[in-house]
Amino acid sequence: MPNISKLSIKSARNALEKKEFSAHDLTQTYLDAIREKDGDPPSGQGRAGIHAFLEVFGDASEQAELADKKIANGENLPLLGIPVAIKDNMLMDGKRATAGSKILEGFVSPYDSTAVKKLKDAGAIILGRTNMDEFAMGSSTESSAYGVTKNPHDLSLVPGGSSGGSAAAVAANLALAALGSDTGGSIRQPAAFCGVVGLKPTYGRVSRSGLIALASSLDQIGPFTKTVGDAEILYDVLKGRDALDSTTITEETYASGKKFSRVIGIPQAFVDGEGIDESIRNNFKEALDKFKSLGYEIKDVELSHIKYALATYYIIMPAEASSNLARFDGVKYGFHKDGKDVIEDYFQTRGEGFGREVRRRIILGTYVLSSGYYDEYYGSALKMKALITAELNRAFEEIDFILTPTTPTPAFKLGEKTADPLAMYLADIFTVPANIAGLPSMSIPSGFDHALPLGIELTAGLGREDNLFVAGKEFLGE
After folding, report:
1. What is the per-residue DSSP string for 103-114?
2. Are strands 197-200 and 220-225 parallel, antiparallel or unpaired?
3. Own/partner pairs, 285-294, CB within 8 angstroms, 24+ separation
4. Three-state DSSP class for 79?
5. Which end of the chain is more exposed for a tag (fewer CB within 10 A), N or C?
6. Closest to 184 (Cα-Cα) out of 407, 340, 463
7. With bands split at pLDDT 50, 70 and 90, how would you rate the model's confidence at 40?
């Protein structure tokens, strides 16, 4: 059977073409690993009980047999025979999708999201859907209505969030790659906590059609992989214009004449802020030294507005979330609770269907959009968003990347921050600027602290994922 701990997408595709093993053998090896390590979805109570998956699709073996037939017929698709997982907020025709919430309990999608369709068209075998913070609201995958996911490196720790299930699946060798969504760091933060590569593309580069929305101006789908090269393969499959998503862009949208100059910008005041763990500081310095040894120039950059990014994000995101989640009323689909009349039906359905964190953000978002507070809060946040975006775009006229730690701390204990929302929100401090400005950003593994993975974050100019892939491969020696 294949040694899945050593495989990448590239090496697996080569082995499949050479008939070293079949897609069916490969898929079965992953299904066996899920059965052994992940537990019985949705309870996650198995030998180890990582609980990365909410559902393993019963037709995975059939998908693999079809892939073997295509390989035998000489078809050569970029993901043909490759087992992947998808986050539970991406629709797949005929499959359940709950976004980690009770309010969507039992909902079955009538169509494929564009991202899933592109995976299918590229020949991928979709193993199942992964656990997530409810409606992607969280940084630890503890707010899921279907139980917590655990970090494969230490089952007492969180895997990060909101895409913690996808990150854990790749890190634990339960899938060769996985898709997540990133609204304020929900791909990059769990990638750092779990020791894998996580990419958030430029806003609009990957279609959001069929993605259950959190905040529409910030959300972006992206991959979790073991290598930067694999992230590039998945990105090439996913990217492109989509008639179903008017915000999608082409490669020409942000065409730039700036040549790759190997200059990395460091917002030193931002990196040296309070609340940064000493192990993170030391690891970041080591990463800087490594980039210097690879021939990169390190340059200080002044980003005076970036310190306001987290506060700006936590006004804009709840505002958009409160609007997006208004559609979940228990009438059309999902969970429903009877009351004495239609209004009470609505109140009880949403009160019981939504979890604590979702209710908190809906209330906050409704407040900042309310009459008398709209200009003071939401309007001011939009102005700050414009200032942050302009400042970052100016910086990329002189540099190729901004480098920061991905997270202010290593992975923390399960339950450690659930009673302190502000402490949980601070886990996103380094990741939210890229979402606010729509920039491509990637977390790559950068070492360990007492066996816990650490990550660094490279952020590039609009449309410059190519630069991220070059630097990431060089850093990891691919």
Report:
1. GGTT-B-SS--H
2. antiparallel
3. 286/446, 286/447, 287/403, 287/446, 287/447, 287/456, 287/475, 288/403, 290/475, 291/264, 291/403, 291/471, 291/475, 294/474, 294/475
4. coil
5. N
6. 407
7. low
For 99-142, write each residue's pLDDT tens digit. 999 999 999 999 999 999 999 999 999 999 999 999 999 999 99
Residue with the two structure tokens 């290593």: 410
Which DSSP letter does residue 213 get?
A: P
Residue 477: both structure tokens together: 């020696």
Catalytically annotated residues: 87, 162, 186
Q: Where are the domains of the chain?
A: 4-238
- Classified as helix, coil or strand, 72 is helix
Is the whole model's pTM more than 0.90, yes or no?
A: yes
Q: Tens digit of pLDDT for each residue in 388-400? A: 999 999 999 999 9
In contact, 313 and 428? CB cutoff 8 Å: yes
Q: How far is residue 343 from each of residues 334, 339, 346, measured CA to CA in Å?
A: 17, 8, 5
Residue 155 has pLDDT above 70, yes or no: yes
Band of the pLDDT at 309, cuts 50, 70, 90? very high
Instruction: Report which of 455, 476, 459 is spatially closest to residue 467, judged by C-alpha positions.
Output: 459
Fold of 4-238: Amidase signature (AS) enzymes (3.90.1300)
At residue 47, does pLDDT exceed 80?
Answer: no
Q: Which two tokens stand for residue 291?
A: 């980039």
